[in-house]
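re: that chain from earlier
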Amino acid sequence: MRILSGATVTVRRLLDAVLLALILVVVFGVILAKVVPVTGRETIIVGGRSMEPAIPMGSAIIVGRVASSQLHVGDVITLRAGDEHARFTHRITEILDRPDGRYVWTKGDANERRDPTPVHESAIEGRVQASIPMAGYLIALLSIPTGVLFVIGVAATLLAAVWLLESLELDQVDRSRAADVTPGRPPDAGEPLSPRPAVTPSFAANAGFGTIRLSVADQIALSRSTRARRSRWQADNDARAGRGDTSGTE
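^ sequence. v structure.
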C-alpha cells in the first residue's frame, strides 16, 4: 500500500509540474506574439537557415528600430530587399556612407558569399535585440485555431489525470487511516487517533493557492461512517459483557 501510495504521489507531482510548465510556456508565447509589439518592437519568426548557428531556424527574434547612425559592423539586422521586398535577417559586414545616405553590406553567417548588393538604410527595419530558439514554432502553433485546440486538449488531459491521481491518493490515505483504528475502541474514545497524513495540494486542484477542503457531502458521509463504527463498537462491547455475565452464573 505504501509503495502504491508513493508511486501515486510521485506521478501526480510530475504531471502537476508538466501542467504548470505548459501554462508558463503558453503564457511566454502569448507575451512574445502580443505583448512585445505593444512596446514598439516586433517579433519575427525565422524561417531560414542562413544565420545558423547564431540564429537557428524556427527561432523567434525581437527586432527594435534603430537609427542608421547607430548601426555597426557585426550587428544583425532585419531588412527588405529585392524586387519583391523579401524580408530577411543578416549580419552587417560593411557600412558605406554615400551622398544619398548610408548603405550596408550584409551576409548570412551560414552563407559562403555576402549578399549581391548593398542595401540603403531606408530598407532596414531594425536591429535584432534578442533571439529565442524554437520559440517561433510555439508562436506559429498558437496562431492557428488547430494549434490552440491542441494545447487546450493537452492541458485538459493533464488536468484530468492530476485530479484522478489526487482522488486515488486521498482514497489510499482514508484506507490507511481506517486500518489504524484499534478494534474494540471507538474512534473518539481513549487515546486520540493519529492525525490524517497530510496530502500536498496539487496545482490542478487549487490553482496554486489554498488547501484541500472536504465538501459538504464528504463531511456528511464521514460523520455517518464515524457513527456507524461507534455503534458497532458499542454492540461488540455489549455482546462481550453479556457473555461474561453468563459464564459467571454457571
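Strands lie at 42-45, 60-64, 76-81, 86-98, 101-107, 119-120, 124-132.
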